[in-house]
Every structure is written in C-alpha cells, then in structure tokens.
Design goal:
The protein is of the alpha+beta class. It has helices at residues 4-12, 21-28, 32-38, 68-75, 93-102, 153-167, 217-220, 239-260, 266-272, 327-330, and strands at residues 49-52, 56-59, 83-90, 109-116, 119-120, 126-127, 134-143, 173-176, 180-183, 186-197, 203-212, 279-283, 289-297, 303-307, 310-314, 320-323.
C-alpha cells in the first residue's frame, strides 16, 4: 500500500527525468531505504517504474495528476458551485463524503482521489482502480425535499454523465440500466447514489462516479466484466477536464431535478439506453429470470419490462440485466 512518501516521490518523478535514490532521499530528508520501500509494489497499482543502477528512477509514463486549480480553470464561472477536495488516497470517496455530509459539509462539496482502495459499486461489488488511471469522485448535493422525492436520481445521473462524455468527444457513450455507462458494449463508467434525509425533508444525495480513464493491464486483470477506458476511445482530455465537465453537467441536471424530478429526462435516458426496445433477461435475487422487452423507465427510475404477463416494473436493488441472447440467461442457467 502506498504511503504519503510514495506520493511525494512520484510527484518528483513526474518531470520524466531520472532521479537517483540518494538525491531523492536528501531532498525529502529520508533514508535511501525509505525511498526504495516507498516505491516497492507500484506495478500492482498500475504504475510502471524504470530503475537504472546508475541514473536512478523514472516513470515509464507520466501520471495524470488531479489539480484543483486546473479543475477550477476548466469550470470557469461554474467553479463557484463546488468545493473540490483532492486526496492522495482513500478507501471510498462516497464513504468519505458521507462522513463529511453528516458533519455539515455544504452542497457542492466534491471529494476526488488519486487512488481509491475500497471503492464500492452496486450490489456490493468492488470498483477497481489504478493510481492515476481512473477518475473516482463523489459529489454532495442537498435538497429541500424529502428523500422519497429523489427516486429517479440514479438514472438522471447517468444522463448527465453521457452528456459530459459526448461533449468531450465520446459520441457513442450509452447507458445500461441501472447505473452503467458503456462504449461499444464495454463498461467505461459507473455510478452509486446514496441518499440520506428525512421523509419530509431536507435530504441529500452523495453521487459517486467512477470513470476508467486509462486502464493498466494489471487493473484490467482484476475486473470480471468487459471494460474499456476513455483513452481507448481516442479522447484526449485529461482527468481534470473530464471531472470539470462531469461536474458541470451534474450541476445543471441536479438544479433541474430539484424542481422537476426525473420525468423531463425520461425520453433522453431512453434514447441512450443500449437495450431500448430490446429483449432482455433480468436475473432476480433468488436466481430466477424474468424475460421481456425493455419499454423504458418510469418517472421514479424503475425499469419497465413488457413481459408475457403484462408490463412490469423493476427497481435496481439486486436485479441484474443482460441481453436475452446471452447464453447463460437465455437458457435460464
């Protein structure tokens, strides 16, 4: 696991030059052994380090560091809506921000990190990231309404993310219900929305977003589904620009959502859905399957499925959606 010293050294190595161990040690007022120890195991985090006995250490590829000043620059006048906190490392940006929300953090607070060590996805799944290779962040947004009014916020977040990616040039970004963003049927991003508050209000939402920006081979090996990253799409924007655009689109959506809910976004969401009007199989919590034709989503974000027994509604929960053509679902196995 990297330490604060690891990040200090990596930032010094970001000039693409070789730095000897003794020079690094003197500059950071630590021992040479401490330098060597801090750089051990970086390959497991997706960081490739070049070591030369005579010249020292150099990064094989630069790290795309998050920078609050660059994020604010990309946001322009919209920067005033947010308070962005960049952490070197945290277990989960959602967990960190939920704690800050409970302590009174204002709406628009953002927590993002260079390395997330225990990211959480839907149904308890892990979100795997490498150091500098993913964009993981959480946004706190407060509402006067009660928590029950926020149904449909999850799909609305998906709409905002697709808008952001398409603005940045990823023209084929699509959605998969309930919370995945796909490119060429490969997952490029996912969301996790956690809501707190009273029934009658006020309430708040912590919106967690994970985007694969540049996946290292080591990270890919830990992921058990088809994935891609933004770099593979040809997009040139760095993580600071992607974060700024995502925040701008989320704020625009959230301001509308606070007064109108998800209803105005339903048609747009459906136009992005990769399985719109297609046959799918839903795997239920008990292992059984429900088959039907996707008929869009309701105002509260429930999936509408036209089945042999009529139109049915499904909320995300423990439900997993796959194309009906996929053998393991088509056969009921």
């Amino acid at each position: 696991m990297p330490t604060a010293l690891t990040f200090d050294i990596l930032r010094l190595l970001s000039d693409a030059q070789f730095h000897s161990g003794p020079v690094l040690a003197r500059g950071l007022d630590v021992s040479r052994a401490s330098v060597a120890g801090a750089l051990r195991g970086l390959d497991s985090l997706g960081v490739e380090l070049m070591c030369d006995p005579r010249r020292g250490y150099r990064l094989a590829a630069p790290i795309d560091w998050l920078d609050p000043r660059q994020i604010a620059s990309h946001l322009g006048d919209r920067a005033a809506k947010f308070r962005v906190h960049v952490l070197d490392m945290t277990e989960s940006t959602n967990t960190t921000l939920l704690e800050r929300a409970a302590a009174g953090a204002p709406s628009g607070t953002v927590v993002t990190t260079e390395l997330q060590t225990a990211g959480r996805g839907r149904r308890g799944r892990s979100w795997h990231t490498g150091l500098g290779g993913a964009l993981t962040f959480s946004l706190l947004w407060r509402f006067e309404q009660g928590a029950g009014v926020l149904a449909g916020l999850g799909p609305a977040v998906g709409v905002a993310l697709v808008r952001a990616l398409r603005t940045l040039g990823v023209s084929d970004a699509l959605l998969k219900w309930p919370n995945d963003v796909l490119v060429s049927h490969h997952k490029v991003a996912g969301t996790l929305v956690e809501i707190q508050g009273d029934v009658l209000g006020p309430s708040c939402a912590v919106i967690g977003v994970g985007v694969n920006h540049r996946l290292h081979a080591t990270t890919r090996q830990r992921i058990d589904q088809a994935v891609t990253d933004l770099t593979s799409t040809g997009m040139r924007s760095d993580r600071n620009q992607v974060l700024a655009e995502a925040l701008a689109q989320l704020a625009q959506m959230l301001e509308q959502f606070a007064t109108q809910g998800f209803a105005p976004l339903r048609k747009e969401w459906d136009s992005y859905h990769v399985y719109a009007a297609k046959p799918v199989a839903l795997k239920m919590p008990d292992g059984s399957f429900e088959q039907g034709i996707v008929a869009g989503v309701s105002d509260d974000g429930a999936l509408l499925l036209q089945t042999s027994s009529g139109l049915r509604r499904f909320h995300s929960g423990e439900v997993s959606l796959r194309p009906l053509a996929e053998p393991r679902f088509a056969s009921g196995g």
